[in-house]
Every structure is written in C-alpha cells, then in structure tokens.
Amino acid sequence: MTDIEIRDFEIESAGADDLLGYHRIVAASQQVDLPDDPPLTYENLVGRLRNPFTGFGPLRHWTAHRGGEMAGVANMYFPEVENSHLVIANVRVHPQSRGQGIGSTLARAIVPAIRADGRRLVECWQVPKGGTGDSWATRLGFETVHETVQQVLLIAEADTSLWEVAAPTGYRLERWIGAAPDALVASYVQAREAIHDSPLGQSSMSNPQWTVDRMRAAEAERRRLDVESRTVVAVHEATGTVAGLTELEVQPHQPTWAFQRDTAVLAAHRGHGLGRWIKAHMARWLLADRPDLERFWTTTGAVNTHMIRVNHQLGFTTTRSAIVLTQSVATLAARLEAQP
C-alpha cells in the first residue's frame, strides 16, 4: 500500500495533534472491540503512553497515516532477560479504515525492528476472543497459545461483607506500599517463585527469576513512574516465612482504578484459604485509603479455575475472554511479503 506512510512515534516529543490522533484510533477501536469497557478518555490514553506497565521492557510505537490522517497505531514491548527472544505486539486500526491493508502495512514496517533486536517470536496479548484482531492475526498464521479472562469488581455494586475473611490459623498479615521491608524481602522474593505455577498455556513468555537486587530495581522503576504498588503477604508464624502474596497497582493517570497483579501461594501452604484472605484484606485496605475508588480489575488464566473462583467469592465478575497469539518472526515476515 504505497499511499500508507508509517512513522516512528515518540511519546516524549509527540505534539498535540499526534496525541489526539492516537487517542482517536484507540478510543474508536475500544468502542467497537470492547464495548463493555468505559470510554477511554484522552487523559487516560496519554497517561498510559507515558506510564506503560512495568516489567515488560522498553515500549516502542509506530503510526500509520493515509491522506495526512492517522489511521492506525502499533506498539511493541521488548521484554528483557528471560524473554529477550520475543516481543509483545499490539496493532490497532481505526474501525472506519479496516480492511484496507493498514494493519498489515504496519506489521510489515515493524518487522525490521524486531529482527534488529534479535527477537525470534511475536506474541499478541489480551486479544478479544473471536474479535476482529483474532481474525486478522489468524489469517497471518498466528496460533492461539493461551486464554485468559478479565474480571472486574465495581465498588458501587460491591458487597463488602465478602471481604470479611477470617485469618487462617498459624498465619499473620504483613503489608507495604512501595518497597518490601528488609526483614521480609528475601522470603518475599523466594515466595514469588510460586507464580511459576500459574498457567501460561503454550506462551513463550517466562515469569521472571527473582532476586533481591532485581526486586529492588523493579520497585525503583515503579517509584520513578509514580506507580502506587501495594503488597499484602501471609507470613507463616512457625517459620516467619512468606507463604502467600498478592500485589496491586494504581497508575497515576487513573487513580480510581486498581489493577490486581500477581497473587501466589506456595504449594506447601495451599488449601488454607490464604489467597482469598490476603486479597480481601487488600481490597479493604485500599478502599479505606482511597474512598473514591471505582473498580478493581485483573486478568487470570482461563484454566486457573481456583483463582477465578476466589475472585468470584470476593465479588468480581468475569467480563470477557481474551487470547494470547504467537508466531515466529520468520513466518510472519514471509506471510506479510506474500500478501498483494
């Protein structure tokens, strides 16, 4: 498509027109592809661009223009360390411009950046199951390797009595905002290894191998981005070790939404209700500090029926299914070049 121009998009230097164009595409796409989600405001979109999720490596953006107007956007995370073999890509085209080769032109333009960084695989996450993005990626040869569900708890509709969960015998709570206390950080890092039991299907993404130094670096990155990170852990009284953990983030551009991140319980301590207990405490704690909170939201592997059930017991509802798609860079490039 020779009339489509692809440009690098730098959030630090982007002007108002480019930011408005980016918002127009993402907001219109969300309205069509995710109609049950609240409308995406301009301020929220710009906040997302300036404060991307931590833990996934550097984020780059590209835009597609036709006739002087932005018609599509693409971004890619470049994970590091264990996941330096892959990128996490997202391509969006304005609904009025779909079916015109813009998405494929964007994908074709970013393949050199993937290859230049030595990546072998492309993964697309949180693609609505059965939607336009699913169909487009499948035509390019992507395969579904994992399925997730999104779960949401709306505070206005919440039954907060569900958060009154008794402490399991033999455990106590510890909690913090920001950095883990020195006395617990080593045990906390060791407990995070339990997250490796969380199902990721056949995704090539690996959970991090945590160390104290790596944890301190992650904490520092969240502070730099002004992300409020809260952690609640269950400590086994007899040994003083962390037996379970749950983590939550509040982004500075969206202070009334809380994103529930990892929750994990060590295998030796499962069956005592620790996950529900610490998540319930997290909800009470956050709402006490933030009475204007509107919602909690989280994503969970579709086969992780235990955690889905725990979330339901706390008042979450499942709002949609999404998939993870994967493709080798070599095959993707060949498929794109074969297109007319």
UniProtKB/TrEMBL annotation:
<dbReference type="Pfam" id="PF00583">
    <property type="entry name" value="Acetyltransf_1"/>
</dbReference>
<keyword id="KW-0808">Transferase</keyword>
<dbReference type="InterPro" id="IPR050832">
    <property type="entry name" value="Bact_Acetyltransf"/>
</dbReference>
<feature type="domain" description="N-acetyltransferase">
    <location>
        <begin position="4"/>
        <end position="178"/>
    </location>
</feature>
<dbReference type="InterPro" id="IPR016181">
    <property type="entry name" value="Acyl_CoA_acyltransferase"/>
</dbReference>
<dbReference type="InterPro" id="IPR000182">
    <property type="entry name" value="GNAT_dom"/>
</dbReference>
<keyword id="KW-0012">Acyltransferase</keyword>
<feature type="domain" description="N-acetyltransferase">
    <location>
        <begin position="189"/>
        <end position="340"/>
    </location>
</feature>
<dbReference type="GO" id="GO:0016747">
    <property type="term" value="F:acyltransferase activity, transferring groups other than amino-acyl groups"/>
</dbReference>
<protein>
    <submittedName>
        <fullName>GNAT family N-acetyltransferase</fullName>
    </submittedName>
</protein>
